[in-house]
Amino acid sequence: MTTVIGVDVGGTFTDLVLHDAATGEIRVAKQATTPRAPESGVLAAVDAAVPAESLARCAHFVHGTTVGLNALLESTGPRESGPRNRVPGVEKPGVEKRGAVVGLVTTAGFRDVLEIRRGDRDDPYDLFWTPPPPLVPRRLRVEVDERVAADGGVVRELDPAGVRQAARLFEAEGVDAVAVVLINSYVDPGHELRVAELLRNAGFTGPISLSHEISGEYREYERTSTTVVDAIVRHRMGPYLHNLDRELRARGFTGRLLVTRSGGGALTLDEAVARPFETILSGPVAGAAATARLSATLGIGTAIAADVGGTSFDTALVEDGRLPLLFQGEVVGLPLQSPWVDVRSVGAGGGSIAYVDPGGLLRVGPRSAGAVPGPACYLRGGAEPTVTDAALHLGLIPAGRISGGISLSAGAAARALAPLAGPLALSGTTGPTESTGTEGVDAVAEGVIRIASAHMAQAVRGVTVERGVDPRGAAIVAFGGAGPMFGCLLADELDVDTVIVPPNAGNFSAVGLVQADIVRSAARTLVRALDGEALPVIERLADTLFKRLTAVERSTAVEPLTADDAVREVDLDLRHRGQEHTLTIPLRPGEDDVESVTARFSDAYHRTFGHRLPDPLEVVTVRATTRVVLDADRPPVPAPAAGDTARSLTRLWSFRRRAWAEAPVVRRSAVDGPLEGPALVLEPTATTYLDAGFTAEAHPGGCLMIRRKDRR
After folding, report:
1. Is 351 left (phi over 0), alpha (psi -120 to 50) or beta?
2. What range(s) does the Hydantoinase A/oxoprolinase domain occupy (predicted)?
């Protein structure tokens, strides 16, 4: 057992959890996120909570970061600047995209793949919908003469002159990174490797992303999109991670820096630098992974992760302790061919800004006050009303100092909310105090919280009802800085009877990082019939993929992490002949035959579509995954630290009663029996709001179990 530190960078706060398995010590910390230099917030959390001797003993520093996602978002939004990298369709001169300037080298005839897309519409009911502009403008997309067939045969040799011409163009345009996507290169990468060599010989020194290293799957649009995203993220991720590693080692850290993947698990530093597109959603996935482990420990069949942070609400459905894993994700309308935990996010967090739209309706989000300047009640320059301001006004958050050294001002919250009362035709003078509250502000604050709750509930329905799962039979696992505050509200919105608040709820995503394992994956398209001759071919290809993963691990780690007993998993993308889309099912090499694989697919097909088909099957993709458990003996749910047992009273709004109530304020460590709502339960990193009609009890494993007593 080892000492592990997990740090999750969110939009508003950076969360840290230290777990010393030898002593059982748990340390948690929250620091304000520093968007312009995220590593500063990480290091501030380390300096605030981790003694030098603990950092020196730390074996693994596991990091969940939004740096890659932010780099991608910056590249999809315009800003005022010079003439370089003009945005297609924008006539105003001097408007460019933020982030890295990327060039694309592709096979002649495929220059416009990023614009043609799939020819579908993201919203079929929006008559004015237009696709987002491609990440690479047309003048930076260069065709070269070459062609490789789908079977790997060379149809046309690569023309070096075209690559040299592309290098001259990229130098003139100030290109930062290059994506190379040649058709069918996943079968034979020779031409892509030659393009990279020619670019280097021509003097290009920036990052180069080669599609055959990024994805071993067909579909030219998806593979091109994934490679371009990798080039954009690579420009930012590498320097960030190396800088963070250097600063940690200057503080005495001697272990490994790991980065979590969008598909669960973690990568080593060098692997994350080499495959940064796999880290796009590394932050939200950590909370889902922690929920999966918690639900398995508690024996909960269906759990809903409800992570409410300062900027967004993230949710995922966990069934039988398993994460909902997909093999193609999408960010800002861009497909990514990568393992992907199905986490849905909406702009409904503590910093989400409330406003009145032109039609006179109250709206909440998705725009957020973020970490800078933050909600008005933080007294850091924010003036617009947010969800946090509404919660503070209604007593859902006690006034005073919170984690991260932030002082809350109820007066500033009320002043920010008050301007919304006029446009909403709300007035009155009854409130918490004569100086800070009015009936209109009370109604505005209640409306803000209810609207935010409705947004969250709709996102939950997207991962449950849309999959044929009834959320009423699930348990909500509420975490994040504001998750426990919304637990009872979400339960009412979704008609759920059980809410679970895990230990260290405000830092639960960082707990998921502490529990992460090393996971690597690779895939290769293999379109052929599933027959008696297919399984030996599939097993040989899977062995090739496992050898590739081992080679990558040896080349990127000073001390290889692959153990002899590392878990190996093989999955197949299968479909009925003549269909377009696939279902992914597990394969047991050496044990399965065609009949057992077919039966497993038929059962999955029936669960998904409600019927079975007699048509023969074909294989589309073979997937290989290795998992190295870093510490099998690590407790899945660390116990909360003991604290003050004193109780007090506060004035608290009950949403069920729609009235103010005198309610107890109880430290979490003091909950030793059934606690009736309305009440507040305090812990260092979060506050749990218990509404009337709910009862909370402490679970022996450290969780707070909230159950509904009666329905409204």
Report:
1. alpha
2. 223-520
Confidence of residue 125 (pLDDT cuts 50, 70, 90): confident
Composition of the chain by helix, strand, coil, percent to 5: 35, 30, 40
What's the whole-number mean pLDDT along residues 498-519?
89
Question: What's at 546, amino acid-wise?
Answer: F
How far, in Å, CA of 370 to CA of 22, rounded?
37
Q: Which residues of 141-151 are buried (b: 16+ CB within 10 A; e: fewer)?
A: bbbbebbbeee
Peptide bond into 616 cis (omega under 30): no
Q: Is the pLDDT of residue 21 over 80?
A: no
Residue 38: is its pLDDT beyond 60?
yes
pLDDT digits (tens, 9 = 90+) for 385-415: 999 999 999 999 988 766 666 788 999 999 9
Q: CB of 221 within 8 A of CB of 117?
A: yes
The pTM score is 0.85
User: SS3 sequence, 35-88?
Assistant: CCCHHHHHHHHHHHHCCHHHHHHEEEEEEECCHHHHHHHHCCCEEECCCCCECC
Angle (CA) 427 429 435, round 5° = 120
- Residue 574, both tokens: 């299968």
Burial-class residue 366 by CB neighbours within 10 Å (0-12, 13-18, 19+): middle
Structure tokens belonging to residue 603: 């059962």
Q: Dig out the tokens for 571 from the structure.
A: 């999955």
Rounded distance, CA 502 to CA 499, Å?
A: 10
* Tokens 């230290």, located at residue: 18
Backbone angles phi, psi at 593, to 5 degrees: -120, 180
pLDDT of 93 = 34
